[in-house]
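Z., the sequence and structure:
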Amino acid sequence: MSVKASVSISDQQDSFARKLVEDGRYASLSAVVQRGLELVREETELKDAELAALKQLIDERMNGEFVTMEESDRRIGAMIAEQKKAYGL
């Protein structure tokens, strides 16, 4: 189903959209606007998904194990030493 809507765009946006139609990249001005809205929708959904993943990671980290700075330094040192050994360094 299509809905007719009236929108205002700048002269520069109008010229750009009309050029896209003239160049055959889009069938009509409506198609240009529809594609623009689709891109905004996709971008919004992607940002929402990234934010949800970040929130989940933060929650997991907050509910996970906490270690002291000293223990963290020790673990990192051990991982570095293990990697050096694996590479024969």
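The chain has a mean pLDDT of 95. The two ends are 66 Å apart (CA to CA).

Let me know what you think.
H.
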